Amino acid sequence: MTANAIIELRKVGKWYNSYHALRDVSISIGKGEKVVVCGPSGSGKSTMIRCINRLEAHQTGHIIVDGIELTDDVKAVEKIRRKVGMVFQNFNLFPHLTVLQNLTLAPIWVRGMAKSEIEEIAMMYLKRVRIPDQAHKFPGQLSGGQQQRVAIARALCMRPEIMLFDEPTSALDPEMVKEVLDVMTELAGEGMTMVCVTHEMGFARQVADSIVFMAEGSIIESGSPAEFFENPKSERTRQFLGQILEH
Amino acid sequence: MSKHSPADQAPIPTGPVSPARWAASYEEEPTQASAPPQANGMTALKPFGWAKDNLFNTPLNAALTLACLFLLWLVVPPMANWLLLKASWSGSSEACREAAGACWSVIVVKHRLIFFGTYPYDEQWRPFLACALFVAMLGASGVRAFWRPWLAVAWVLTLVGMGVLMWGGVAGLTYVPNDRWGGLPITLMLSVFSIALAFPLSILLALGRQSSLPAIRTFCVGFIETMRGVPLVSVLFMASVMFPLFLPEGVTVDKLLRALAGMTLFTAAYLAEAVRGGLQAIPKGQYEAADALGLSYWQKTMLIVLPQALRIVIPPIVNQFISAFKDTSLVTIVGLYDLLTAATVATTDPEWRPYFAEVYVFAGLMFWIFCFSMSRYSQWLERLANRYTRR
ABC transmembrane type-1 domain: from which residue to which, for each copy (chain B) (predicted)? Predict the structure, then answer.
C-alpha cells in the first residue's frame, strides 16, 4: 500500500446480522486523490464510505484515516470526524435552523470558533456554492439542488481534509444535478481528497483519479477512468457499464 | 443499505398527477369549488337562501335539521332559564328558595372559602396577591419578547415574594403554616411546579429509555412502566403515608412537598412517553449528519434532536399538562385543600347545601379557564414553532 495514503482500508469486513455487506475490502487513497465508487445497488459502496467516518462500524480488518485507526475509542472517532466531511443523498440539513446556522453550528460547538469569525467564513463558502442570498432562509424553502449545495458548504465549514459524498445527486431532479456536480468539480480542482459514491459517469470520467467498482460487498476492479471505461477487466464490470451507459 | 428513506425527502417524480399535487389540490378543493362561483351568490342570498342550500337541500338533510332544531328547543331554553334568566344573583338563601333558576348567591357568599380555603380570613389578601402575581408571571412568560435572561431573575423574585406572602412571619406578616393553605393557590402551585419539574425530568427519562447503556435504559423503562401502571391516587397515597415510614426518625418532609413530588414523578412518566414519540419521529439522517459533523452526544441532543422533537410533541405535551392540572384535584386524598376540595367544603354549610350544583359549576368554570388558556397558548406556540419549518 502507498506510504502517503490518507485513507487506508485493509481487509475490512462487515455483516448486518447474517448479511455479508463488505467482504475483505482493501483500498488505499492518497492525499488529494479523487476516487469514484460505483456499482449496482446493494453492492456495499455506501456502507464502505460510511465506515470511513464510522457512521457504520466495521467488524473485521482495519481502517486508518490520516494515521488514526478507527476503533471503538470515541476520542479517535471524534478526531477523524473533524477531518472528514460528509454529504448525504438526502442532504440531511437541520430543518429548524437557517442556512447560515446550519453552516456555523458545528464550527462553533465542535471547533470552538467565534460566531462572527465563522459567519464570515460561512458566507464565503455560500458564495462559492453560489447561494449567498439564501443565507437566512430555512432549508425547507430551498430547492433540492440548493439544499445539497448548502450541505456541501456545511461540510466545508469544518475545514475537512477529506470529503465523502454518498450519492449526492441521486435524490435530485435531473435539472439540478449539474449545479451540484459543478460545485464538486470545482472542489476537486482545489486539491481536496474526495471519495464519491455516484452513478454520474460523466463526472467520474472528468474528475476521478481512479474508479472503484463494487459488487456484492467486494471490490471487483479499480483503475484510472480511461482503463475502466475503455478496457474493463471483468465481465461483471462490462455488464454494469453496459446497463448504465446505454441510456 | 442507506436505502431506508428515499421517499422521505426525495422530490416526488414529476408525473401528470404526482401524489403531492393531488393532495394539494384536494386540500384546496373546498375553497376553489365554493369561493369563485358562489361568492357573488352568497352575498346576494339572505340567510334563507343559505339555509335552503345547505340545511334543506335534500329530504334527509331537512329531516336532520328539523331534528336538531327540536333537540335545541328541548335543551337550550331550560338551560338558559336555569343559568341566567331565572337565576338568583344575590341575597339570602331564602331568596334562592323562591327563584326557579340557579342560586349564584352561594358563590357570592362562599367565594372566599372556595378560592382560599381555610387561610385566615383577614389575611386572604395575601394568597390573592400571590396568585395574581403568579398568574401575571405565567402570562408574561408566554410572551416571546420577554424570553430574556431577566425573566429568570423575575421568576426567582416572584417565587420569593410568593413564599413571603403565603407563609409570612417576616415584615410584620403573621405566620401561616402551609397546612392552612387551600383553594386556588394550592391548585396553581401544585400544578405549575409539578409540570415545571416534570418536564425536564421527562426529557431525561425519554433519552434514558433510548440510551445504549443497559443500566440507564432498564432504570428508565422500569420507572416509567411502574408509574404508568399505578393510579395517581395510589402514588399520592404512597408519597404521603408510606414514604415517611422510610425516613429516619425525626426527619419529616412537608405534606405539600410530598404530594408535589408524587405529582411530579407521575406526570414525568407520562410526559416521557410523549417526548419519546417525538424522538422517534426524527429521521435517522439528522443523527448521522450531526455525527458526521463531529457533534458530541449532548450537543447532538440539545442542538439538533430536542429542538425538533419537542416541536412535534407540543400537542401531546400540552394534553399532559392539562391533564396534570386537573389531576391536582386528587390531592384531596392526602388531606390537601385544592380548589375543588375547598368548593366541596363550601357546600357543607347547611344553609347553602341545596346549591352544591352551582358551586361545582363554578369550580368547573375555574378549571376550564386555566385549561382553555393552556390549550389556546399551545396552538399559538405550535404556529410559532412551525412558521419556518413547514415543508
Answer: 184-378
